[in-house]
Amino acid sequence: MSFSTLADAYQSFDFSACFHSVHASEVRNVLDRAGSQAPLDTRDLLTLLSPAAQDFLEPMAQIAKNLTCQHFGKTISLYAPMYISDFCCNHCTYCGFNANTRFPRTRLTLEQIDREARAIADTGIRHILILTGEAPKKTPLSYLEDMCRIMTRYFSSIALEIYPMTETEYRGLKQAGADSLTVYQEVYDKSIYKAVHPKGPKSDYTFRLLTPERGAAAGFRAVNIGPLFGLGDPASEAFMAGLHARYLEQTYPHVEISLSLPRMTRAGGAISPRHLLSDRQFVQTLLAWRLFMPRLGITLSTRESAAFRDQLIHLGVTRYSAGSRTDVGGYHVHTTGTTVQFEVTDTRSVNEVAAMIRHSGYQPVFKDWEIF
């Protein structure tokens, strides 16, 4: 059974009725079991994401902090995103790179990729996340494999956030040096997914949903998933993402599974968020995921403000991006005149983010993996 079968079972589930049926006594019961490190089930995750649980954020935070320290120590891993192409044939209504948006498209040459990688490595970063739009004719497998070989000169961990591929294609990229895969479902609600992906290969809901499984089967060391908060109902989307992460953890126990909490920010030609995730709901989601999956990696990007990121460091986050640029060649090759996929909110340098982590009593980790 793939996750598709499990996801389909929840398409007609009445999340609203379920969430609003939860009472405070049920939340206390779940917290008692989480505090004693008893495993939580999917009903418990629904309870922790319910409106009733919003009155228990403080005890949830204390348990989350203890679980995170137990499994990860007081460390925060750092990484940087690097965009190498903004060509895209999809029509995602929320993305600044969608095919309908008119702007000069860019694809870095291999020489430019080398210069861009060197500029990022000079900041001390050793974990890189490579991003492209979905345009296989512009960024074919051979180009991506060449890119990975260049990245191995500078980085100990190479993660990919590119268009979905087959298991065989992922094996080729792994052989070229990539070790991790990030793929966001964006929204688990099928009807909303169809509305915001009207045309292009990304409109295939199931092929995208099963991408993390193909990556895990291909042998990637780590897989990172998540919804884009702003498209569907936040609580039900958070539940589906947690369900997806639990499925991957149980099916591929040798793979490190992580979740991200990206919130929609401004982008050229993109729609506004349909469902806002408040700061309070953001914290509740992060804590619920940590209690549900104590060994889960949790990634926080520079979409969030510096002040907000500083407050979350004690609550279960294990990975921060730093010094991010979201335009192609933004670190060195093209410093002006390019289009960003989304606006960065925390604009601090790598050194400034690392200093904040140390000041908070944690150790910034630039390298915790090596490809041999």
From TrEMBL:
Record carries keyword Iron: yes
Gene3D superfamilies in the record: Aldolase class I (3.20.20.70)
The enzyme's E.C. designation: 4.1.99.19
Keywords, alphabetical: 4Fe-4S, Iron, Iron-sulfur, Lyase, Metal-binding, S-adenosyl-L-methionine
SUPFAM superfamilies: Radical SAM enzymes (SSF102114)
Biological source species: Desulfotignum phosphitoxidans DSM 13687
Pfam families reported for this sequence: BATS, Radical_SAM
The protein, known as: 2-iminoacetate synthase ThiH
Origin organism lineage: Bacteria, Pseudomonadati, Thermodesulfobacteriota, Desulfobacteria, Desulfobacterales
UniProt GO molecular function: 2-iminoacetate synthase activity; 4 iron, 4 sulfur cluster binding; iron ion binding
Listed cofactors: [4Fe-4S] cluster
Radical SAM core domain segment(s): 74-303
The UniProt record lists the keyword Metal-binding: yes
